[in-house]
Amino acid sequence: MEKKNIRYFQDWKGHLAIFENIPALICSMCGEKLFSGETVDQINTTLWNTPHPTRHEEADVYQLVSG
Ligand SMILES: [Zn+2]
Predict the structure, then answer these.
(1) pLDDT by residue (tens digit) across 39-55?
(2) Residue 47: burial class (beta carbons within 10 Å; 0-12, 13-18, 19+)
(3) For the whole prediction, is pTM greater than 0.85?
C-alpha cells in the first residue's frame, strides 16, 4: 500500500461531492483506496457542517456504450 493524497468523489444528497488532498492508502496491485477511520469521520463531518463548498466544478456524465 502506498500513501497518497487523492481526489475523492462521493454521492451527497443526490449530487457529486469532490474532496481534494485526501490522505489514502492505495494498493499498487488493484488500485483500491483505503481511508483511515479518522479521515472517513472528517469527510462526513465536513459534508454535514459545511454549508458552502470551497468552489463548484461541472462534471461530465456518461453511460456505458453498448455494442
Ligand atoms: Zn489490492
Answers:
(1) 999 999 999 999 999 99
(2) middle
(3) no
